[in-house]
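To the wet lab folks,

You asked to see what we're planning to order before we commit. Fair enough. Below is the target structure as tokens, and below that is the sequence we designed to fit it. If anything looks off to you, flag it before the synthesis order goes out.
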């Protein structure tokens, strides 16, 4: 599969890595990027992410067979509205957003009005680093990508989007937008918010000044993702507020169980809690761990 022109709307870690991977694997004859800052035009071209970058979104998408939205979730709708006049009939639009139900509900009919097709995607790959300079061509290799077609998605468009992520080295899983949001609230969104909560608590300036000196490998590894983009994670939590709120409630319930076992001095319950968690994580690590965790 080879695309004639692919347009990346937003070139950060994911968009930049897509550009590098598309070009390295020869999956597109031309890769164009839309960026918001003049300095990013030269940067993206110098990094080899795109052949051409522009500040004009209509110019960027004109003639594109495939448009990939790689911006924070709150920016997707306004950018989609701006690019609609130049969007080609029969073009495919997808995204890399971490919440799907709201995005699909907004963008699927918008794309349809232009004669194009929107198919939601979520590559479960990323890092706490941000920006085009952090991009790497192997980011998607062996990771999972969730594709979220709806009953209105043409089979040909769904197949092309699945083929895209497969060609980038990903394992594709198809889910409804709603099921996607329910599951990633637990495995992706909750871990980030838990890490941010822990980092904010332990590194609060009101804590004893010696405390940060005692934070070692366990604290660093547990809070790594708290260094991610606040703007991006704000948008994710708000776009997926129902499932995220439910996930937090379930997490609090587990913490209360743990707290009560400790308060009672119940060593057997505490050991069982920890042993079960270790066994489940070790089994997951052996069978399913991705080299490119989000």
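Sequence we intend to order:
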């Amino acid at each position: 599969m080879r695309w004639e022109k692919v347009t990346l709307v937003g070139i950060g870690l994911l968009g930049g890595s897509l550009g590098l991977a598309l070009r390295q694997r020869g999956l597109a004859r031309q890769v164009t990027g839309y960026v918001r800052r003049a300095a990013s035009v030269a940067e993206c071209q110098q990094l080899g992410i795109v052949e051409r970058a522009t500040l004009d979104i209509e110019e960027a998408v004109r003639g594109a067979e495939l448009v990939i939205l790689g911006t924070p979730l709150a920016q997707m709708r306004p950018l989609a509205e701006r690019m609609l006049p130049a969007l080609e009939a029969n073009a495919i639009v997808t995204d890399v957003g971490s919440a799907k139900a709201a995005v699909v509900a907004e963008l699927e009919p918008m794309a349809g009005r232009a004669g194009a097709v929107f198919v939601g995607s979520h590559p479960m790959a990323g890092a706490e680093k941000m920006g085009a300079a952090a991009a790497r061509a192997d980011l998607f290799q062996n990771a999972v990508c969730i594709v979220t077609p709806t009953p209105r998605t043409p089979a040909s468009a769904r197949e092309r989007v699945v083929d895209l992520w497969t060609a980038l080295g990903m394992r594709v899983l198809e889910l409804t937008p709603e099921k996607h949001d329910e599951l990633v609230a637990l495995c992706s969104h909750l871990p980030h918010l838990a890490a941010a909560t822990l980092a904010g608590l332990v590194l609060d300036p009101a804590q004893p000044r010696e405390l940060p000196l005692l934070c070692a490998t366990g604290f660093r590894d547990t809070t790594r993702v708290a260094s991610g983009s606040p703007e991006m994670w704000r948008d994710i939590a708000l776009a997926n507020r129902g499932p995220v709120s439910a996930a937090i409630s379930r997490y609090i319930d587990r913490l209360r169980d743990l707290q009560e076992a400790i308060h009672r001095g119940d060593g057997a319950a505490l050991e069982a809690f920890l042993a079960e968690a270790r066994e489940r994580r070790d089994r997951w690590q052996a069978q399913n761990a991705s080299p490119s965790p989000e």
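Structural context that might help your review: Residues 12 and 132 are 5 Å apart (CA to CA). Strands lie at 3-9, 28-34, 52-54, 66-69, 92-95, 117-118, 120-123, 144-148, 171-174.

Thanks,
Computational group
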